[in-house]
Amino acid sequence: MSNTTPEPAAPPSDRTRVRRYHWLARYDRETINDIIDAGIVCHVGYVFDGHPYVTPTNHWRIDDHVYWHGSSASRMLRAQSQGIPVCFSVTHLDGIVLARSAFNHNINFRSVMAFGKAELVPADEIESVLEVFTNRIAPGLWDHARKPEPKEWKATKVIRLRLDEVSAKVRTGPPIDDEADYQLDHWAGVIPLHTVLGPVEPDPKLRPGTPTPDFIQNFKLWKDR
Amino acid sequence: MSNTTPEPAAPPSDRTRVRRYHWLARYDRETINDIIDAGIVCHVGYVFDGHPYVTPTNHWRIDDHVYWHGSSASRMLRAQSQGIPVCFSVTHLDGIVLARSAFNHNINFRSVMAFGKAELVPADEIESVLEVFTNRIAPGLWDHARKPEPKEWKATKVIRLRLDEVSAKVRTGPPIDDEADYQLDHWAGVIPLHTVLGPVEPDPKLRPGTPTPDFIQNFKLWKDR
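ok -> structure tokens follow
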């Protein structure tokens, strides 16, 4: 993530034009893709019976589409299969920004918001996009585990959203205080936050002697790949 | 977070009854509060002009309400001030669960979803609830920084949601494979993920000799308090 994009491109629509803290807006596709690819959890909003729903789910990106998947019986996926409007949101919390004044406390973050109509991925494309997803979780994982059987494929739906109306918002760096407040003796600064890996926990039911594959030994977080 | 709640209470409504992986559902208030309090970023869904919006924002909880705040000019907050339905969602990613079969890969997570009508917090209550929020960010922070001035109070709206219709979902532990797959030689296990603090970054514009307050020196993440 860079905060130095020289000139943000124009927002793709009025809906994606960032209004609050608009100087944090980023509309270039590289920044947007980096934020999407740096994590595997998104929040998808949709309207069902007139009410808002927000569902956390895993996402992945292929070119100009983001994807998520789930059970064919899922109420969310059945609704989205009909092509309803969705809001796709990815957020990374990078730090707590403490200012000299309460009003200027802030957080450092990277976020993406995309709007559009959900689309059911045709059955004959599911295998290739789920292979991408699985290898995004851990490179090589798709060929390692037992592949889905017909009834498992049948139980799986994949939804995608084309990244047409999309914007990002990025805050980095120290607090910004009102000019007069810089004379105060209050402490100010940033407490950075990071996601890290813990020690791998092999399944207690592993067959004795099962080797640890390279993609586990060399596992890296998405942001570090 | 405990995964050993003996008997989950009944879901408070049909809308909060967890359908997918329903055996992961938790309806007891202690589990729900723990998940909400373990982080400071939520995603709030609402409907505007018939379309779904999902906004990441900071949240805090006081008893049976969750709160978020923002600019008085914010489109989201102005809409929510009218008492529209919202969906409040908090999600923590705890690990990647790799199974012997692609179909059974999973993630370990804790999430909360709450439904209800947003409510504008009356102006005369804003100071007390923002004090709670600020001290949740870092205990003692409210009394440390310059307090808001009248124009800053005027620029701030606080929204709350009563936790009436709320449920949690918690997955922990190793993968669960189909019985036959335990005979396979594939590796399976969990890659845990954690949020950690980085080294504190004092504002480069700090006045020389400004002492580092205790709440910075002893800062702990919300999950560790």
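The longest strand of chain A covers residues 85-98.
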